[in-house]
Amino acid sequence: MDHKALAQEMRGLREQVTGITDTAVAAADGLLIAADTADSIDPEGLAALAAAGLGLARRTAEATDRGALHRTVTYGSHGCAAFYAVGDTALMVVLGDEGMDVDRLHTATQPALSRIGSILTAQDTKASEGV
């Protein structure tokens, strides 16, 4: 797994969008792949919760015939948590403070999600080839 490339993508988002406080990439089953989080955040717990939440959102989108889920955002009194699908097998979590521009975040994440998907797919390809 190219953890350095994943870390670069997470850092790149922080540089593009003011207000991002934490990021993580996890498998769809909730297992943490990579994280850039504050000490006050449990990255494994965050990954598990994000997977559960994204799974419910996916089921809701399917049950209501809304198509494939792209993202879900939870707003709290101190900021928000955005959960993005990375294909069918992974997800990215972005936490932000009250000042984060969520529209800017959604725009900035699209190319990053594509690159993260490629990084994760390259890992799957290598594993299936026995590399």
Structural overview:
The protein is an alpha+beta fold. It has helices at residues 3-16, 43-63, 102-128, and strands at residues 20-27, 32-36, 71-76, 79-86, 90-96. It has a five-stranded antiparallel beta sheet with strand order 2-1-5-4-3, sandwiched between helices.
Task: Give the key terms.
five-stranded antiparallel sheet, 3 helices, globular, alpha+beta, 5 strands, 131 residues
Helix segment tally: 3
**Tertiary shape:** globular
Q: Name the beta content range.
A: 25-35%
Chain oligomer state: single chain
Give a count of the beta strands, DSSP E runs of length 2 or more: 5
**Gap from first CA to last CA:** 11 Å
Q: What structural class results from the helix and strand content?
A: alpha+beta
> How would you state the average pLDDT, rounded?
91
| Helical fraction | 40-55%
Task: Describe the sheet with the most strands.
Answer: 5 strands, antiparallel
Poorly predicted runs of 5 or more residues: none
Order of helices and strands: HEEHEEEH
What is the C-alpha radius of gyration, as a whole number of Å?
14 Å
Largest beta sheet: strand ordering: 2-1-5-4-3
Short account of what is shown:
With 131 residues, this protein is α+β, with helices and mostly antiparallel strands. The chain has helices spanning 3-16, 43-63, 102-128, and strands at 20-27, 32-36, 71-76, 79-86, 90-96. 47% of the residues lie in helices and 26% in strands.
